[in-house]
Amino acid sequence: MHPIVLAVSGASAQPLAERALQLLLQAGESVELVVSRGAIGVWQAELGVRVPNEPEAQEAFWRERTGCQGGALVCHRWNDQSAAIASGSHRTRGMVILPCSMGSVGRIAAGVATDLLERCADVHLKEGRPLVICPRETPWNLIHLRNLTTLAEAGARIAPPVPAWYHQPKSLEDMVDFLVIRVFDCLGYDLGQLRRWSGPIQS
Ligand SMILES: Cc1cc2nc3c(=O)[nH]c(=O)nc-3n(C[C@H](O)[C@H](O)[C@H](O)COP(=O)(O)O)c2cc1C
User: Fold this and answer.
1) What per-residue confidence (pLDDT) applies to 145?
2) What domain range is 8 assigned to?
3) H or E segment and range at residue 17
4) Three-class SS state of 117
5) Is residue 102 part of a domain?
6) 147 in Cβ contact with 105 (< 8 Å)
7) How many domains in the chain?
8) What is the rounded average pLDDT of the residues 107-120?
9) How much distance in Å is there from the Cα of 145 to the middle of ligand 1?
10) Residue 194 located in a structural domain
11) Which end of the chain is more exposed for a tag (fewer CB within 10 A), N or C?
């Protein structure tokens, strides 16, 4: 099976990315991970955690954070546009950008690739491969909405991490799992047990 690209850009929902990585590795998946410079900045600003940029150090960092040695993990430098995933000839199962900043949304919608994340998204669109974009911002201005529309027209799935209550979450962890599992539903993954809608609660 080809790897999935998990891309993380600089929006305020980094725990979703960490949980997605953990669930993918626990499921034995092969993951190519690219964390943007903006995302490294958000980790520092919001969580006080320094994410290493060097691939080997970053893999050790994520292995320790997720507590998972399973699956296969390849980490990339945010600016390494010579990485295999920067080429359409390197086959993947698809790409998920979780979370996705409005900056990344705008640059990908404009066809501008200033870093590996944007180049890889551009490659997925040009190759007609699944690209799931999880924008995190509120409220959205007209520019955000137009850029997201452009991306949807180009073939991306737009899957904002929007909470729901029908699965009856009991904790923040339940909500995080709901958001992550629903994102990966878009690609046909079954990343965990989820209370799915099966009709109203019987009283
Ligand atoms: C603590 C923090 C939180 C941020 N949250 C968001 C956010 O939720 N959505 C967003 O679009 N940008 C957010 N930003 C701004 C982006 O990180 C910034 O525009 C960055 O340049 C995006 O880079 P990237 O798209 O290459 O990751 C945040 C920045 C910081 C420092």
Assistant:
1) 98
2) 4-185
3) helix 14-26
4) helix
5) yes
6) yes
7) 1
8) 98
9) 17
10) no
11) C
Q: Which amino acid is at 119?
A: R
Atom of ligand 1 nearest to the CA of 13: 8
In a domain, 125, yes or no: yes
What per-residue confidence (pLDDT) applies to 118? 98
Taking only the tens place, the pLDDT of each residue in 27-63 is 999 999 999 999 999 999 999 999 999 999 999 999 9
Range of weakest confidence among 10-14, 54-58, 92-96, 197-201: 197-201
Buried b (16+ CB within 10 A) or exposed e, 133-153: bbbbbeeeeeebeebbebbee
Per-residue pLDDT, averaged over 156-176, amounts to 96
Global pTM? 0.97
Best residue among 9, 16, 37, 42 to mutate for probing ligand 1's pocket (most ligand atoms within 8 Å of CB) is 42
Helix boundaries (H) for the chain: 14-26, 37-42, 55-66, 102-109, 116-126, 142-153, 172-185
Average pLDDT (73-90) is: 97
Instruction: Please tell me the distance between residue 117's alpha carbon and the centre of ligand 1 in angstroms.
Output: 14
* Residue type present at position 116: L
Interhelix angle 142-153/102-109, rounded to 10 degrees, is: 50
- 92 pocket-lining for ligand 1 (C-beta < 6 Å): no
Count the neighbouring beta carbons within 10 Å of the beta carbon of residue 45: 11
Please state, in angstroms and rounded to a whole number, the distance separating the CA atoms of residues 94 and 129. 6
pLDDT for residue 203 is more than 80? no
170/161 Cα distance (integer angstroms):
18
Predicted pLDDT at 26 = 97
